[in-house]
Specification:
The chain is an alpha/beta fold. It is built from ten helices and six strands; from the N terminus they run αβααβαβαβααββααα. The protein has helices at 3-9, 27-32, 38-59, 78-101, 117-129, 146-162, 173-178, 225-236, 246-255, 260-266, and strands at residues 19-23, 63-70, 105-109, 137-144, 190-193, 212-215. The protein has a six-stranded parallel β-sheet with strand order 3-4-2-1-5-6, sandwiched between helices. Helix 3 packs parallel to helix 4 (78-101) and helix 4 packs parallel to helix 5. The termini are far apart. The mean pLDDT is 93. The structure holds farnesyl diphosphate (FPP).
Length: 267
């Protein structure tokens, strides 16, 4: 048995996160360290995307959300934006048959209308081809930012109030969540950021309210199966309290099924 398999053996398969979100950072530095172009770092990053998608699918993780291009990334040099757009379209085209084979369903989050038409066509074709898949949900965030998403949600709710479909007093957390692009999808249990920075960078700010955060210095192109398993093991060693005390959580674990919602309602 090799090291990688040994690491997998350390995972508790009954306590895997249902939803993992990843800020894939470090492609540029990976390339610079090798005197390569930044776009070559992004191309290498695609190998990590494929690897981590495959492992997530094999492990039975239900949702994998990848921050592939932020609203702020439009400010990068046009040559880099063009290279990234081309790479994203090409990757989806190339990988779709494998995604279908592995029962992976593509979801797109963000202002997809801002993407070049040919990339939108590739993405739509990928989404259409995988629409019937029932395994891993691969959520690709493109031209996405949390503030954009929350502003959008506020606008939609304001419209409903204006049209008397909703009273201000009826606005709940669920109302807001239902207007986000992640509506119907459970919040991430684990948020991973590669590349050594300790920031959330406008990513899933609402949804990550109770996510476990994992920061690693490993650059995204170097983020291999072992590095991912390390993050999952770290997650499994955390105690998720959702605002409760440690005693409450362990009582829930040991003597009765954990019912976090009803316990929270009593606080
Ligand atoms: C951040 O590294 C990475 C990005 C802005 C792009 C990530 C996109 C991919 C890997 C392609 C994904 C494709 C699909 C289809 C999901 P950086 O450039 O900010 O790195 P640096 O901090 O070292 O400069």
């Amino acid at each position: 048995m090799n090291d990688k398999n040994n690491k997998i053996d350390l995972l508790d398969m009954t306590r895997l996160p249902e939803h993992v979100a990843i800020i894939m950072d470090g492609n540029g530095r990976w390339a610079r360290r090798r005197a390569m172009m930044r776009s070559e770092g992004h191309a290498e990053g695609v190998n990590s995307v494929n690897r981590i998608t495959r492992l997530s699918s094999d492990l039975g993780i239900k949702y994998l959300t990848l921050y592939a291009f932020s609203t702020e990334n439009w400010k990068r040099p046009q040559t880099e934006v063009d290279a990234l757009m081309h790479l994203i379209g090409w990757t989806i085209r190339k990988e779709t048959p494998d995604l279908v084979k592995n029962n992976v369903k593509i979801h797109l989050l963000g202002e997809i209308d801002r993407l070049p038409e040919s990339v939108r066509a590739d993405l739509e074709a990928g989404r259409h081809a995988t629409a019937g898949c029932t395994g891993l949900n691969l959520m690709i965030c493109l031209s996405y930012s949390s503030r954009w998403e929350l502003t959008n949600a506020a606008r939609k709710i304001a419209e409903k109030v204006k049209n008397s479909e909703l009273a201000p007093s009826q606005i709940t957390e669920e109302t807001i969540a239902s207007e986000l692009s992640t509506s119907g999808i459970p919040d991430p249990d684990l948020l991973i950021r590669t590349g050594g920075e300790h920031r959330i960078s406008n990513f899933l700010l609402w949804q990550c309210a109770y996510s476990e955060l994992y920061f690693t210095p490993v650059l995204w192109p170097d983020f291999d199966n072992e590095a991912f398993i390390d993050a999952l093991i770290d997650f499994q060693n955390r105690e998720r309290r959702f605002g409760m005390t440690s005693d409450q959580v362990s009582v829930g674990d040991k003597t009765e099924p954990t019912d976090i919602d009803s316990t929270l309602a009593q606080i």
